[in-house]
Amino acid sequence: MAVIINKDTRVVVQGITGSQGQFHTGQMLAFGTQVVGGVNFDKAGQEVHGVPVYATMSEAVERGGANASIMFVPAPGAKDAAYEAIHAGIKVLVLIPEHVPTQETMEIMQYARQHGCRVVGPNTFGLISPGENAKMGIMPNHIYKPGPVGIVARSGTLSYEIAFTLSNNNLGQTTVIGMGGDRVIGTNFVDALELFNADDATEAIVMVGEIGGIQEELAAEYIKQHVRKPVVAYLAGKAAPAGKRMGHAGAIIEGNRGTYQSKVDALSAAGVKVAALPWEVAELVKESLK
Amino acid sequence: MKLYEYLAKQMLAEHGVPTGGGIVCETPEQAEAAARKIGPCAVKAQVLVGGRGKAGGIKLANTPAEAKARASEILGMNLKGYTVDKVLIDPQLTIEKEFYVSITLDGMAKLPLIMASAAGGVEIESVPHDQIVFAHVDITTGLLPFQCREIARKIGLTGDLAKQFVKVLTGMYNAFRKYDAELVEINPLALTDNGTRLVAADGRFNVEDDALFRHPEFPTVDEGTELEKKVKAIGLAFVQLDGDIAVMANGAGMAMGTLDVLSHYGGRPANFLDAGGGSGVEPTAQAFDALLATSPKAIFVNIFGGITRCDLVSEAIIQVKQSKGINVPLVVRMVGTNDVRGREMLAESGIEAYTEMGEAARAVVKAAYGKEA
């Protein structure tokens, strides 16, 4: 089992003909993902790695049977492309681009909410369910393996580091969810925890968080009330100064909000084991599964 | 990006919000002429730091001659590190009551949030929650007048003043949407003219950086240090810190994690640098070069190759080493895509590369300070 995407997910790639779109379509296919089409209005009829390019999203849905979309469209075109996907009936939408204006992200989220579409991102590395050969993202293929751990992360590379250590310790993953580093995102910690909590195959949950915002604090509240599976967390940004944006739009300590300590305290109080160093996560997961 | 008060008020005035009609001036003579039109006025320094009144950046003038004198005192003065090059000549208001109203982006609700209070004129953080009205706006519907009327009533405005408030809030929201703001704030929204008129006495307007490409009309105000500007120009995320070990990692989370691990072992990071995922050799070399130019005690490179190829990172480092030389200790930790090749390349150039992050962090601390911390 897995969450959000599985072997039945039929993926369309918006922006398939760009260099990112082409490269990652190849990688997703290599992982075994069912990529059923791509979209580019001006390049309809072409193929990318044998995948047909359609002119519009409705064509990709009607003719290709797509039910999920991953978007590589640059930020200025993201709103239009997202609306097109949701309008065409896509139910899982993964937004890769960074720097989408926040007000436009809010419009996308509201439109998605009204149409029952799950959005992941923006500014995310995507999703991967190793046991289902399903990948909608830009993460390296070789660092994951099937297993009982659900991972949800705000950042890409740091979660790769942690997933790789878990895999090397024979702790594979059900699904890895990249939430994205922006201030407004479609699927957050609480959403992911809810999904992993209800998934029978997931036996332990790993959260990779960071400074800024109050998502980890809200997650702690949710865990306290609803989650009975072990949860292990690693949080980045302990050494970060206040008032500075650390790469991600959302990674900033504003006033006394979003500090490392506030998150550690909240999660610890909810029974979450917080690793002080990234490579300690695997050990904590192993202990919690005994 | 923050806008100066005069620009903030200009944006608001364009959308029908009464702002008092102040005039922005760059010389004492202009200030004198402006005061002749406006009458008794306040001379206000245009800087982007808070607390300018207490720091002497706002002075009252009753005559044009006084306005000229006050302007010549304020123009050129240094306010918390910023040199004042513009003043706003604003009419003096007789204020009966001060309100607060703002629109921000609420990341958790994923919607714009209006905050309004009858306890204005002070920092909103110091106002008790039960004295603030909170209201979200459905961004696909827009702000409707009924919602403004509800808020007006809750902060005690009725009759004609409520109508004025609807106009103010609607104008704020329209400006907020048009210019992709992340904050529009009027504090205080002043009740003047014997309680008959609402005027925006001060205004803040922050435009979201990610939307600036749509608004070339705004003058760019870059608040970073020289080094920060230089690295940002390469297109990479960079923050200067006060330590002495320069750090480069790929990915924002990884870069933050690297600072944490380094600090854990007693290292003092000199910077945060996200060298990006999948950056080419050239930007990586430029970033590395910029770090070298800060004369750190050591450099720590931490790469988890996913989309980033380790061999290309090695190529960038070797390129800098060959062209300029690297005269401080360099410690590289490298795993992931093409890591074996990447480490071999470094070894051939006499640079030691590690696979374990902790081991590498300890090595760089020792190299920088000459002892294990």
Written account of the structure:
Chain A is α/β, with parallel strands linked by helices and 290 residues long. Chain A has 2 domains: 10-120, Rossmann fold (3-Layer(aba) Sandwich); 139-289, Rossmann fold. Chain A has helices at residues 19-30, 57-64, 78-87, 102-114, 156-168, 189-198, 215-226, 260-269, 280-289, and strands at residues 10-14, 34-39, 47-48, 51-54, 68-71, 92-95, 118-120, 126-129, 134-137, 146-153, 173-178, 204-210, 231-236, 273-275. In chain A, β6 (92-95), α4 and β7 form a beta-alpha-beta unit. The model of chain A has no long low-confidence stretch (mean pLDDT 95). With 373 residues, chain B is α+β, with helices and mostly antiparallel strands. Chain B folds into 3 domains: 21-91, Dna Ligase, domain 1 (2-Layer Sandwich); 97-214, D-amino Acid Aminotransferase, Chain A, domain 1, CATH 3.30.470; 226-369, Succinyl-CoA synthetase domains (Rossmann fold). Chain B has helices spanning 5-14, 28-38, 64-74, 145-154, 159-178, 226-234, 252-264, 281-292, 310-324, 339-348, 357-369, and strands at residues 2-3, 23-25, 41-45, 58-61, 78-79, 82-83, 87-91, 97-106, 111-117, 132-136, 181-192, 197-200, 203-207, 237-240, 245-249, 271-274, 298-305, 330-336, 353-354. In chain B, strands 1, 8, 9, 10, 11, 12 and 13 form a 7-stranded antiparallel sheet that branches. In chain B, strands 2-7-3-4 form a 4-stranded antiparallel sheet, with helices on one face. In chain B, strands 15-17-18-19 form a 4-stranded parallel sheet, with helices on both faces. In chain B, β18, α10 and β19 (353-354) form a beta-alpha-beta unit. The longest helix of chain B is centred in the middle third of the chain and has 20 residues, at 159-178. The model of chain B has no long low-confidence stretch (mean pLDDT 91).
